Amino acid sequence: MSRHVVGVQPKNRVEETGEWSTGLCECYKDLGDCCFACCCLPLFACKVTGAVGACPCLPLLDCISCVPPASLAMRASVRERYGIKGSVWSDCLYGCCCYTLSWLQISRELKRRAASHAASSSSSSSTARYSALTSLQGEHLV
Questions:
Q1: What's the rounded Cα separation, in Å, for the pair 59 and 70?
Q2: What value does the CA radius of gyration of the chain take, rounded to a whole number of Å?
Q3: CA angle (15, 56, 26) in 5-degree steps
Q4: Beta carbons within 10 angstroms of residue 47's beta carbon
Q5: Dist CA 64 CA 18 (whole Å)
Q6: pLDDT above 60: residue 17
Q7: Which of 53, 88, 101, 114 could join 133 via S-S bond, C-beta 3.0 to 4.6 A?
Q8: Which CB contacts under 8 angstroms, 24+ apart, belong to 114-118?
Q9: Above 80 in pLDDT, residue 65?
């Protein structure tokens, strides 16, 4: 009986780049979420925040300040989690000037990372960690 040992695990291209998997203005890649965000952005932001694992009501704090704290926090959290290049200044710029586009980009990133992780992971313990995000594949966050 021979055993094959894998020395290096294959990595997904999305995780290696250190970049967002989609650009800020690539809303056409998920039209369902785009329509949802355009019709009811506060509810969409709450759904995305819930998918990250934070309190779904957190985006409601964005209306009390000229700099949206929830948008900043979610964008920074996703960047940190996936090793995406950027800074607090860029998060602030996108959160203030491109608020809707920023939330849509966060949503697409979560879906793509969950899908790539589900495709590359077969262990049940890792899969359980991402089960909430994996169910979002190919769907908008309704």
A1: 5
A2: 16
A3: 45
A4: 21
A5: 32
A6: yes
A7: 114
A8: 116/12, 116/14, 116/15, 117/12
A9: no
In this predicted structure, the answer to whether residue 89 has a pLDDT above a threshold of 50 is yes
Tally the C-alpha atoms within 13 A of residue 94's C-alpha that lie toward its C-beta.
23
**Distance, first Cα to last Cα, the chain:** 50
In the block, tokens 């089960």 appear at: 131
Asked if 74 contacts 99 with a C-beta cutoff of 8 angstroms, the reply is no
Helix (H) and strand (E) counts for the chain? 8, 0
Q: How many residues does the chain have?
A: 142
- pLDDT of 141 over the 90 cut: no
Q: What is the pLDDT of residues 20-37, one digit of tens each?
A: 999 999 989 999 999 999
Minimal CA–CA distance to 67: which of 50, 89, 46?
89
Average pLDDT over residues 65-74: 86
pTM for this entry: 0.73
The token duo for 108 is 């697409």
Which DSSP letter does residue 112 get?
A: H
